[in-house]
Amino acid sequence: MLLENMPVKPLPLGVIKRIAKKLSKNPDIVSRLPIADIRAERKYGRDIKPWGWRVRAAKIKYGKKKVSAVIKRVHDVSAKPLVKGIQRIVREHNAKMRPKLYELRMPHAYPIGKDFVAMARTPAPTIKDIMNPDSPAQKERGRRFFEAMKKAHNISTKQLDAAFKELCDNLKKINTIIETQPFWLWKDQFFVLGYKKGKFIFMPVMDIV
Question: Which domain of life is it from (predicted)?
Fold first, then answer.
């Protein structure tokens, strides 16, 4: 599935309010939701631990339909500063940089209390899923997505790697946090939404501060 003509959709306000209400009554309800992150094969334990166990899937009733959402438990920083920090960096990047090989899109994410972030669920892979997967599930998701992109646009992983390097170089120019937290530049910190007008379309994962 190519997502090149659409940013990851925002969640309806009614869905956000419903999630917030449920979590305010019982935060532990998240532990009973299915794991949504394919990195969960690493089996780190309970959902309070890092990596895939913190990311849960939910279907929230909204009118006559159900909306697929992801609820993520944050770590090392509260939800609101995390969301605002990432969105600020995207705004600053897009105001100052003119990348040749990629476009950086704003993530739609919503702080829910201090510990959780809610987002619409996306089938998009990360750069790591495509180029350096750790698990069979990551490899399969990245392979299927990139095969469709190659067929549609005649592109290669070498071009994707060049676009990622340009992104890293530009982020270093605008963001001093890179110097102290190099994981900002990990390939699993950015979704690949598609390819349009000669550029890869990236979006940050809601995990970088």
Answer: Archaea
| Contact (Cβ atoms closer than 8 angstroms) between residue 177 and residue 200 | no
Q: Over the stretch 74-97, which tens digit does the pLDDT of each residue have?
A: 877 888 988 998 888 899 999 999
| CA atoms lying within 13 Å on the CB side of residue 8 | 28
Asked if 70 contacts 54 with a C-beta cutoff of 8 angstroms, the reply is no
Torsion angle of C-alpha atoms 132, 209, 45, 116, degrees rounded to 10: -130
Looking at every residue in the chain, the average pLDDT score rounds to 80
Beta-ladder partners of 70: 57, 119
Tokens of 93: 């990047």
Taking the chain, what is the end-to-end CA distance rounded to the nearest angstrom? 29
Residue position matching structure tokens 């990360």: 126
